[in-house]
Amino acid sequence: MRVxxxxxxxxxxxxxxxxxLGLGYxxxxxxxxxxxxxxxxxxxxxxxxxxxxxxxxFELLGITAPTPLIKDAWNMAKEGKRLGxxxxxxxxxxxxxxxxxxxxxxxxxDYVVKGEAEExxxxxxxxxxxxxxxxxxxxxxxxxxxxxxxxxxxxLVANLDSIPYPAHDLFKINRYTNLxxxxxxxxxxxxxxxxxxxxxxxxxxxxxxxxxxxxxxRARTVDNVLGEWRWLVRDLxxxxxxxxxDIWNLKLDRAKELCRRIAAEGLNTVPWVTVxxxxxxxxxxxxxxxxxxxxxxxxxxxxxSGDPLILRNVIKKSQSMDMVRNAFKWSREAGLQxxxxxxxxxxxxxxxxxxxxxxxxxxxxxxxxxxxxxxPYPGTEMYDVIQKYGxxxxxxxxxxxxxxxxxxxxxxxxxxxxxxxxxxxxxxRFYLYRPKRVWQKVSHKSFWTELPxxxxxxxxxxxxxxxxxxxxxxIQHPAA
Length: 480
Ligand code: B12
Ligand code: SF4
Known about the structure:
By secondary structure, this protein is α/β, with parallel strands linked by helices. The chain has two domains: 148 residues, Cobalamin-binding domain (Rossmann fold); 297 residues, pyruvate-formate lyase- activating enzyme. Helices cover 37% and strands 15% of the residues. It contains 18 helices and 17 strands. Strand 4, helix 4 and strand 5 form a beta-alpha-beta unit. Helix 1 crosses helix 5 and helix 8 runs parallel beside helix 9. 44% of the residues are buried. Cobalamin binds next to helix 1, strand 3, strand 4, helix 4 and helix 5.
């Protein structure tokens, strides 16, 4: 059966385009099992789905979706059905809410796979081609005789070395942008690949979608990672590589060994970045020097808050502010650029705690500061707390986007308007009110080449506006 794996176009994340790595993994296992497979990422395609499907005679459409894109995924499935295809959904949102998409509202979806799907997708192909009963496909949610059927769950892939490298060669890689255009300017023809050296994370930050990532940290061996790195650098001519692990540096020795080997093999000619934060409490000065020697250009840290109590008791980040300070200091000393992620508006936050976050951002002064609004994704501890004691304003799944001010919530003693005010203020005070920053921005070529986007972002963050009002009807008080 000919398979097309697809990702809907994102209206949520338009500033840059990253490869959907999960589809790369699925394509690799399908290819290995002998199934003809291609990847259609609507964010970079110039042909409509219909044309690609007809030309490639694809029979099965497998669609991925995080929460804010689930509606786009349903629409894509409708198109697939119209073209006579079998439709399968998987990915982050489906791992959290699998039943929703096989319910009666979604006849366009034939199958949903919950969780990591390298094994399940092959089992599903076997079932569809009559080699095993559908009931035995792990992690599958489907309909039979008008009833939703839930099969036994799929486990996490225990040995990550046992799965093939993602089918990086199937991505139209020069249509993706570089990984962090905000700092480097937007290179629309970068050959920027991402790589995941481990999966899962033992920490339990309350805003994190833990059911997606899993608590068990599973690491690929350094040899296995190096094989993929070599392929990216030598054969696929990567111009940038991004580590997207949840926590690639959990085992410090392994992280150091990986850096040493990258440098020793001369693979350090291609710059790399840690797309998401690395954890500050699993680092020391030597690690950053080794990263630099291995070609790392920029390192990101989940700083989250400048208020120690919010950090410890609300976010449950398991790190101290001094650990954050050290990580920034060490990375700068090693010659790395720095990036900090900050969250505004966790439950129990107020003007004072958010002011401390702004102050901390100014003190750390990373090359790039990313201020995000706390967003209660389903499956997070934060979501459960707000469901219990407050009220979520978001009406639609597409409202669950970190950089939009829709997915706000109310809690007793929580001022949602203040949260948006401080969040926008953070951007202004960090980027606009400091001459050094303004100069950095306007002296960069992309400021001028990307002027329309620059102006629209500036309007969003830098022009003070009246935040939407919260009415008493929006606020649901906790049960006694
Ligand atoms: C790298 C990354 C990004 C990158 C690249 C995204 C991309 N193009 O893939 C960037 C920075 C752009 C990004 C943006 C966002 N991200 Co992000 N991101 C990640 C991260 C760290 C890694 C993703 C990854 O490569 N995983 C590795 C692969 C192997 O896993 P996977 O994609 O889940 O695929 C497996 C299964 O899900 C399944 N599967 C996946 N697709 C399909 C399809 C079918 C048909 C089937 C059967 C199975 C299946 O099989 C795959 C193999 O096992 C994850 C955390 C994580 N550990 O996954 C967060 C994560 C996915 N992101 C998250 C969020 C919230 C976002 C944003 C919504 C944030 C925002 N701005 O509002 C945006 C959404 C943008 C978008 N269009 O996708 C949340 C998702 C929460 C949710 N409820 O959906 C996560 C889980 C982080 C977290 N821990 O909370 N992200
Ligand atoms: S935010 Fe990062 S460190 Fe915290 S639980 Fe999620 S993946 Fe782990």
